[in-house]
Design goal:
The chain is α/β, with parallel strands linked by helices. It has one domain. The protein contains nine helices and nine strands. Strands 1-9-8-2-5-3-4 form a seven-stranded mixed β-sheet. Helix 3 packs across helix 4. The longest helix has 20 residues, at about 50-65. It is globular. It starts with 13 loop residues before the first helix and ends in a 16-residue tail after the last helix.
């Protein structure tokens, strides 16, 4: 199975995306999600790598649940991919529609209160996100500050161009992960000093340095977590939090944050992995890494 950065976009043609946007603007988000289901059924017939990855993930998940006395999650690959498609629709709504109806709930633990206090004191924070849940929905959160978000732009170029064409969010600035260098780190340091947020994903290996990873266990299986994001965060000398936005009902999301001690890259990655595992077990259908993430499992 290919690495995530070797997989092609699935059904993200420019015309198809514009048709979906038209349907959304005329009929609304729920109608769009309704008619998307049969489209996903057809896509699933041809998206063999994604379906294979979904089945492998579900097998690992169920095995872990059995071994720990947890109730097994039962869902099909079609349902899994459809959940991802709905997340992309919510992303489009959050980023492109000023009238987005997405609502938010907060997991109010001590880390959240510390995070909120830092934002209130205009302290810059480094956020480590993932492809668990729908972090892009954060752009619709009224409390969001200026965000510098890094992403692999060339991987989903068609969808990215569509989002940029219709983007209505002013508080999110996108940066390419392909061009990170010392100057980038210096620029982000200055932005953090101003109280901005900087966000990078921590769950996908870099196509530029695929060998620079730390092995961790998630759901009892070895996984490779890239060290680059964590080293970048450590170099910025600022508070670091892991963050996930999990869909709880229709267009409503719950925000989870976890403070990450960044003094040791290895221990920081272990904390991050435990944070992901905990949320995977709470929201199993919202794991959107449709590639060979888990090692040595058929």
């Amino acid at each position: 199975m290919n690495k995530w950065y070797q997989q092609r976009e699935q059904s993200a043609g420019k015309i198809r995306l514009e048709i979906l946007w038209f349907v959304y603007k005329i009929f609304g988000i729920r109608v769009l999600k309704l008619i998307t289901y049969p489209v996903v059924v057809v896509i699933s017939l041809f998206a063999k790598p994604g379906v294979k990855a979904s089945k492998k993930y579900r097998k690992i998940l169920n095995s872990y649940q059995q071994n720990h006395g947890l109730k097994e999650s039962r869902f099909s690959s079609v349902s899994h991919i459809y959940t991802f498609a709905c997340a992309m629709i919510d992303k489009m709504s959050a980023s492109c529609d000023k009238k987005s109806k997405i609502k938010f709930e907060i997991n109010k633990n001590k880390d959240w209160y510390e995070f909120q206090k830092l934002l209130g004191n205009n302290v810059g924070v480094f956020l480590i996100c993932s492809h668990l849940g729908n972090i892009e929905a954060l752009s619709a959160f009224s409390g969001a500050k200026t965000m510098h978000a890094f992403m692999q732009i060339t991987q989903n170029k068609t969808f990215h161009n569509f989002m940029m064409q219709h983007n209505n969010t002013k508080n999110t600035l996108l940066h390419s992960t392909e061009n990170i260098n010392i100057a980038t780190a210096a620029e982000m340091f200055e932005n953090l000093k101003k109280g901005d947020l900087v966000m990078m994903a921590g769950d996908r290996t870099s196509p530029n340095t695929p060998q620079k990873n730390e092995t961790v266990k998630i759901l009892g299986k070895n996984c490779q977590i890239p060290i680059g994001t964590f080293k970048f965060a450590r170099a910025e000398s600022c508070p670091v939090f892991a963050i996930c936005l999990m869909n709880i009902t229709h267009e409503k999301y719950k925000i989870y944050v976890k403070k990450i001690a960044i003094e040791s890259t290895k221990s920081a990655i272990q904390e991050y992995a435990k944070f992901l595992e905990k949320l995977i077990l709470l929201y199993p259908k919202q794991w959107f890494n449709f590639f060979d993430f888990f090692e040595n499992t058929k």
